[in-house]
Amino acid sequence: MHDRTMLVVGGAGYIGSHTCKALALRGYEPVTFDNLVHGHEWAVKWGPLVRGDIMDRAALDAVFEHYDIQGVIHFAAYCYVGESMTAPGKYYRNNVAGTLTLLEAMRDHGVRPIVFSSSCAVYGTPTTPVLAEDHPQWPVNPYGWSKFTVERMLEDFGRAHGTRHCALRYFNAAGADPDGEIGEAHDPETHLIPLVLRAARDPRKPITVFGTDYDTPDGTCIRDYIHVSDLADAHIRALEALQAHPALTVNLGTGTGFSVREIVDAARDVTGIPINPIYGDRRPGDPSRLVANRTLAHSLLGWEPRYTDIRQTIEHAWSWMERDPE
Length: 326
Ligand code: UFG
What we know:
Elements: E1 5-9, H1 14-25, E2 29-34, E3 49-51, H2 57-66, E4 69-74, H3 81-86, H4 88-109, E5 113-119, H5 142-161, E6 164-170, E7 172-174, H6 192-201, E8 208-210, E9 222-223, E10 225-227, H7 228-241, E11 247-252, E12 258-259, H8 260-271, E13 278-280, E14 289-290, H9 295-301, H10 310-323
Parallel strand pairs: 1-2, 1-4, 2-3, 4-5, 5-6, 6-11, 7-10, 8-13, 9-14
Antiparallel strand pairs: 9-12
The chain binds uridine-5'-diphosphate-4-deoxy-4-fluoro-alpha-D-galactose (UFG).
Residues 79, 81, 119-121, 143, 172, 190-192, 195, 207-210, 221, 223, 260, 283, 286, 290 line the site of uridine-5'-diphosphate-4-deoxy-4-fluoro-alpha-D-galactose.
């Protein structure tokens, strides 16, 4: 039995699969637990796949009994902000109740460390240009509230049951594995960079820029795009940091923002294809600017982004997309 076995819940998804690769490269055995609703069997390449749902306590018990799990990295969640507005129950049931089931299973099997995928959505509408972890939290959609609620549950389980947790508040995950082994494959795809690249590949699927009248230098929204391999690396650091710290909450972003127009321009450079966006209305619920303060990620995890050139991040996403025949 491997003595560094980690349970990766949602390991067949975009960020989960990149983290499995990073774990394997660092000598861990990632055991993926995934219901394959949004995850992909082909993305599980670095350890066993157990097909199961976090709402299913018996399936979780079986995995904790079968493997000598030392810690959990928990990605499994629905993550469509718009859908969370129209189907909040789905988000509270899966993201909150599902995580509660997982935490209770961990408690009962004596597994303490958990790295949790949180989100900058816990902050809601920013009151400062750059968001630090102590920024006030008032989410503006059920997705954000589901992440917020799990963060509170983790604190309570820590106090009562000795669970050790690191909540990682991601900004905008982007890019793909630089070796081309895995990449982003959401269905439906709602994220900017893959949609811009899809527009480059197929002019019949143009990209719509959501809003050009924001209070930003070029009028379009600004986001902090973090390379998925940098995110993956931070998860392993978080896992290891939990040996010394019982409770951590850390932003994961590069600290630099790019506007939607800048992303379209960069994608044009990377692909060499003229991309002609449609300029549309604002998408409800989009804050004008979300950029991370990454001081804590550095001081607590020793983490720095390796990929700070947005063109390189887009290039990796493009190479991944070019492999896909669809
Ligand atoms: N955008 C467009 N056109 C599109 C898609 C997106 O202009 O077709 C814009 C959005 O308005 C936004 C930016 O591109 O300004 C990025 O949008 P994404 O949908 O790629 O990402 P979000 O910033 O909306 O969402 C991300 C994560 C969520 C998380 C959220 C926190 O994907 O999980 O950040 O606010 F909740």
